[in-house]
From TrEMBL:
GO terms for cellular component: ATP-binding cassette (ABC) transporter complex. This is ABC-type quaternary amine transporter. Transmembrane segments: none annotated. The keyword tRNA-binding does not apply. Its EC number is 7.6.2.9. It comes from the Bacteria. It comes from Jiangella anatolica.
Length: 239
């Protein structure tokens, strides 16, 4: 468990400024949902935290360790950060067990660890030998979460992990994921365009619009006291 902090983070692609002066603190062991419209910069933000892209400005730190700033860039595989993509991004030619074991450090590369994280993600052990195409979308997302948690990361990032799921499956999968995150105590950032999802994720929420973090706080505080009419309209809150 470690606190994740971003200070003054900025990112442009060519001449297009995608993120500007983003500062965000996710205290150790807590969850934050970043909510914003499509194209507001949510995925880019997660990619900077994960180390898949390099910020142009600002600092990203995990506890006392700087992951990225003007002079330093810790590569993705050395950050201790787990990542779950929108479609799960499982290896199609590997079984569930092989997906979860993939890339694990030797001390954790055991069937016992695979079973442990599968159980954490509410996955029946009988699914271990199946291939991704033999699973439902919700099961695939839970395998992706199990794979992300298996190396005992200090932070997990979730990029719209439920958006491809049908409504019924979405609710059930979301609860299983929240339960697993709760049980593992990992510091978590979820990004979503769905305000109901953000408000019910069980942590603080941060609203992003056109690459800027415009408000953050508890769901009640943001919903009851939106900082602008745009935020109110986006959240469906009264003003
Ligand atoms: P969101 O996840 O909120 O939908 P993204 O972070 O994916 O938003 O994208 C934010 C903006 O940055 C969009 O305008 C998108 O086209 C642009 N963008 C994202 N990645 C790249 C890239 N690799 N090159 C150029 N533009 C990009
Ligand atoms: Mg996105």
């Amino acid at each position: 468990m470690t606190t994740l902090s971003l200070t003054g983070v900025g990112k442009s692609f060519g001449r297009v400024e995608v993120l500007r002066d983003v500062s965000l603190t996710v205290p150790a062991g807590t969850r934050t949902a970043v909510v914003g419209a499509s194209g507001s910069g949510k995925s880019t933000l997660l990619r900077l935290i994960a180390g898949f892209e390099r910020a142009d400005a600002g600092t990203i730190a995990l506890g006392p360790a700087t992951l990225a700033d003007a002079g330093r860039f810790v590569p993705a595989h050395r950050r201790g950060i787990g990542y779950v993509a929108q479609d799960g991004a499982l290896f199609p030619h590997l079984t569930v067990e092989q997906n979860v074991r993939f890339g694990l450090p030797r001390r954790l590369r055991s069937s016992a660890r695979v079973r442990e994280v599968m159980e954490l993600a509410s996955l029946d052990a009988a699914l271990a030998g199946r291939y991704p195409h033999q699973l439902s979308g919700g099961q695939q997302q839970r395998v992706a979460l199990a794979r992300a948690l298996a190396p005992q990361p200090s932070v997990v990032l979730l990029d719209e992990p439920f958006s491809a799921l049908d409504t019924g499956l979405r609710e059930q999968t979301r609860q299983a994921v929240i339960d697993a995150l709760e049980a593992s105590g990992v510091t978590t950032v979820l990004v979503t365009h769905d305000h109901d999802e953000a408000l019910s994720f069980g942590g603080q929420i941060a609203v992003i619009a056109a690459g800027r973090l415009v408000q953050s706080g508890s769901p009640a505080a943001v919903f009851d006291n939106p900082a602008s009419t745009e935020i109110a309209a986006f959240l469906g809150a009264a003003i």
